[in-house]
Amino acid sequence: MDIETFWQDFKNRHPEIKTDHHDTYAMGSTDENATILAHLIARGIKTATTSAVDLYGPDEPLPFVGEYNVILDGHDQPICVTQTKVVETIPFNQVSAEHAYHEGEDDRTLASWRREHRAFFQAVYQQEGRTFTEEIPCCCEVFERID
Asked: What string of H, E and C letters represents the secondary structure of 56-84?
């Protein structure tokens, strides 16, 4: 199903939702990872995510409370809809164990969260010709699967 049809079907099932605004994206650095993460979200295991604030483009808005998101798998197929409930900007080295747990990945510990996110951010920062530090501002988002 294409994304717009998926979104319209979602809105038809949820007539209380009056907005047409939604963000659409896949998570992760590979198609395989995107599919795994999308299914963790669909199952309600993954209820949070983290992005590097300073890697957003000048015209790319940060997530905001109340925003709806169509989550895609690694084949750009819509899997579910989430709504953002909390957005906080926190330095990488101050992200909490609770947030790491809600990300729902690996063993859900802060140690594994830091290891995996450090490697991911280091690679992306290097591609951008920038330097990753432990103090980078992170956008920590908590969401709820709606449908």
From this structure: CCCCCCCCCCCCEEEEECCCCCEEEEEEE
